[in-house]
Specification:
By secondary structure, the protein is of the alpha/beta class. The chain has 15 helices and 14 strands. Strands 5-4-3-2-1-6-8-7 form an eight-stranded mixed beta sheet, sandwiched between helices. The structure holds adenosine-5'-diphosphate. Adenosine-5'-diphosphate binds next to helix 10 and helix 12.
Length: 398
């Protein structure tokens, strides 16, 4: 059985075709500049590639280009799209409505649309992807929504509520929803498997550190708390995002510079974080290089990010009254050995000990703590597409 996984952005479309017999990726690809011009880069698992520029005024034409790449191009992997059993969609915001994945129906489409108020940058784009899929592939093929937020729906109210007047929660559903749920779910399941234990019996902290970053505390097999909040801006410092800060710093700056809420959103989401502090780049590799060459602001950005990660991990250890396993994933989590080492050094009081040689590894699934360590530490490369494909298969098999 083959599952087609879609991650639609406003002007881009990422996809994978996965054979669920062996969970092998048959091909992956990316359509870019949708609505502007149109470009597809498609790669088959055996290395064949198809790259083309073709007009993509909307996501529908992008899917037509994908069908051509999949079934007719020099890098084709199937004869007809009829071989695909279902389509799984990444949907960023499921609000308080969705605590799991579900088959997409007209009601679900309406919910995704309405939840756009809580995720204006993502849900409308995700919805465009679903609608274009229905237009291109018809109504017969099952389509499944896999929400980034649903894993976090188990959080208790004491964790997800903000200490604002209660009416804002009642009137506008302002609360913490979290993000990266598919990734936290995937790597925490994997940790339980590697530990050979029931997930309910271990306390896990998952650190998803990429362009966007979040840390989640998992207790009794479910999410207890997570660092991202109402939107993916909360938590700790990321490539271009602030993470948590005193809101009055923002009202102060807004008054000084006569800024609108939209200006504040832009500054906090796109101009801050590692980029904002270092003035160098949003990419940790560039910033580390600048720091090594003596750039003090670059070093400060690195130090701040690591310190903030340590504080989140520490707070979640307190929230769970302990931790059995810590996981690093995402581009930074999987590749940045120094960051992992620095975070783990702050936890030696727990009897946590890492093996520096094992920690020197990049992007490979490995336990990096020593046999004597009281807390097990892992690098687990995340695979959100596979998680979406698995959930899609589970839903259509019901
Ligand atoms: P996204 O959140 O967009 O999926 P990724 O998970 O791919 O992003 O993470 C991207 C980030 O990973 C880059 O911005 C870069 O900072 C970081 N990264 C990748 N490789 C390394 C490395 N070797 N050392 C440090 N950081 C790295």
């Amino acid at each position: 059985m083959k599952i087609f996984v879609v991650n639609a952005g406003s002007s881009s479309l990422k996809y994978q075709l996965i054979d669920m017999e062996n969970e092998q990726v048959l091909c992956k690809g990316l359509c870019e500049r949708i609505g502007v011009s149109g470009e597809i880069t498609h790669k088959a698992a055996d290395g064949r590639e198809y790259v083309a520029e073709t007009a993509m005024p909307t996501h529908s034409e992008a899917f037509e280009a994908v069908v051509y790449a999949l079934t007719k191009s020099d890098a084709k992997v199937i004869d007809s799209f009829d071989e695909v059993s279902a389509i799984g969609h990444r949907i960023v915001q499921g609000g308080s409505i969705y605590n799991g994945s579900c088959l997409i129906t007209p009601e679900v489409l309406k919910d995704i649309d309405e939840l756009g108020a809580l995720a204006p940058l993502h849900n409308p784009a995700n919805l465009l992807g679903v609608k274009a899929c229905i237009k291109t592939f018809g109504e017969e093929i099952p389509q499944v929504a896999v929400f980034d937020t649903s894993f976090h729906q188990t959080m208790p109210a004491k964790a997800y509520m903000f200490a604002l007047p209660y009416k804002y929660f009642e009137e506008y559903q302002v609360r913490k929803y979290g993000a990266h749920g598919t990734s936290h779910h995937f790597v925490s399941d994997r940790v339980a498997a590697l530990e050979g234990k029931d997930k309910k019996d271990i306390k896990i902290i998952t650190c998803h550190l990429g362009n966007g970053c979040s840390i989640t505390a998992i207790k009794d097999g479910v999410c207890l708390d997570t660092s991202m909040g109402f939107t993916p801006l909360d938590g700790f410092m990321m490539g271009t995002r602030t993470g948590t800060l005193d809101p009055s710093a923002l009202t102060f700056i807004a008054e000084k510079e006569n800024l609108s809420p939209a200006d504040i959103n832009r500054i906090c989401n796109k101009e801050s974080g590692v980029l904002g502090v270092s003035g160098v780049s949003n990419d940790n590799r560039d910033v580390a290089e600048a720091a090594a060459n003596g750039n003090e602001r670059a070093q400060l950005a690195i130090d701040m990010q690591r310190y903030q990660i340590i504080k989140f991990v520490g707070s979640y250890i307190a929230a769970m009254n302990g931790v059995d396993a810590i996981v690093f994933t995402g581009g930074i989590g999987e590749n940045d050995a120094k960051l992992r080492e620095t975070v783990c050094e702050s936890l030696t009081y727990l009897g946590l000990e890492i093996d520096k040689e094992k920690n020197a590894v990049r992007g490979k699934e490995i336990k990096i703590s020593t046999d004597n360590s009281k807390v097990n530490v892992y690098i687990i490369p995340t695979n959100e597409e596979l998680a979406i494909a698995r959930d899609t298969l589970r839903i259509i098999s019901k």
